[in-house]
């Protein structure tokens, strides 16, 4: 038997139940992973609340790290005993052990521990594709990154600095502003004290930024468009405040022929080659110490409701993980 989190209906943190299930052997193309740490991300909240639908009953969680205990027929990507990590579908990382498609698993470098791996896979791979593919940033660019003190945000602050990119971050408190600054943000705006659109225009001398990276959604979308320079790109990759409301395409023309994209990790990592290339990039900057993963909250798997409550209340900073 193994323990996992299951939801039978959508709703608040209370819908998550810790249950015992029988875990069978891995099927063809699968590997069984005994998990040592599990990542917590806002996308888990979206599935729990039904913003992102899934068949019910269902699981939650999209990243984890552990050891391969068994492999199914035809598996060549990993072997028994490998230390591995993953991010993405299938959903169900909130578990002590699980069977995973071996094609999704990546062997960890020796100097990356399980806690770090579980906290960095989804968030780190997200920053990798946002900065290298969604908009191919180059030294000298200036960007706006919302929620700069969150797990994705702190990785972004460091990676932007590594690339020679000026990052303007938004946060909700002075403590979070200090944290983002320590991690490499050049300018930090406390949106509870300042209008971020006005401040961005001041910082850039009225020019605007190359790109806005926005995981907040409804509350920040239009203001973010007003931060962009002509031909700039609005990257909407989350909905923490709710889905972006419908808007007229003329809004983009009126602001200087802007681009808007709604990327997803699954689309950018749709092939094994893409996944391995992105992971090599991420593992490289983490193993070298150029990007540090800041795990600031650890919860027992049984305490997942508290983890979600604190995440949704924006009481967390950096990365959060579950420990089976």
From TrEMBL:
Enzyme Commission code(s) on record: 1.6.5.5
Q: Which SUPFAM superfamilies match?
A: GroES-like, NAD(P)-binding Rossmann-fold domains
Question: A cellular component term (GO) from this record?
Answer: cytosol
Top class in the EC scheme: oxidoreductase
Q: Which domain of life is it from?
A: Bacteria
- Would I find Oxidoreductase among this entry's keywords? yes
Describe the location of the Enoyl reductase (ER) domain by residue ranges.
11-322
Entry GO MF terms: mRNA 3'-UTR AU-rich region binding; NADPH binding; quinone reductase (NADPH) activity; zinc ion binding
Keyword NADP, does the record have it? Answer: yes
UniProt protein name: NADPH:quinone reductase
Organism of provenance: Duganella fentianensis
